[in-house]
Amino acid sequence: xxxxxxxxxxxxxxxxTDAHLAAxxxxxxxxxxxRQRFKSAAGWLPEIAGDASRHPGREPKAASVLxxxxxxxxGLQVLLTRRTAHLRDHAGQISFPGGRAEAHDADAAAxxxxxxxxxxxxxxxxxxxxGQLPVYTTITQFVVTPVIALVQPPFELALDRFEVxxxxxxxxxxxxxxxxxxxxxxxxxxxxxxxxxxxxxxxGPEAREHFIWGATAxxxxxxxxxxxx
Length: 229
Known about the structure:
Number of domains: 1
CATH topology: Nucleoside Triphosphate Pyrophosphohydrolase
Strand content: 25-35%
CATH superfamily: Nucleoside Triphosphate Pyrophosphohydrolase
Distance between the termini: 36 Å
Number of strands: 12
Order of helices and strands: EHEEEEHEEEEHEEEH
CATH architecture: Alpha-Beta Complex
């Protein structure tokens, strides 16, 4: 059965949040604690392995994303991007820097680092990879490896304006708090599809909401599951 794309996720009703679950403790969200946790990552299974439905007729494609955790004075911040509206896949959505693996990439981390340099100009000498999460398979058949890295300021970004509309940061603590994890149910003729969102209201007088949802929210949820154990 072909599953229709969700064109306006904001319009899909919220079925509930996970406010009953505890937030990851602040002492687990330090660079030292994260390094230690990823040393014992073997054997861990993700809460969400991928989208329940996938588009038929597409071959699986290996890809990686970089989950950049920026070391700021007020705590770690997750660097995210908003994709441009004209792209074929996931247009206008909030995502991590990343993309399809190339034959010359040595491994998943090499793909993530290359894509981050290409998409947002993240200087690789400021990036320290500390681990990765299990793969996540998207509705568009990308088999994505999330690569987790610490990013040391200062640095300047240089966005690829063909692919990236903007880059922004969200506090890791906010995203690791399940009270901010919204569950949606999208119904269509013949079935339903569930997805997560983590709306970020932004900061400052000119703040505007960034609607983090779909694969990006699911991978962040897997990170929550990993860090809360």
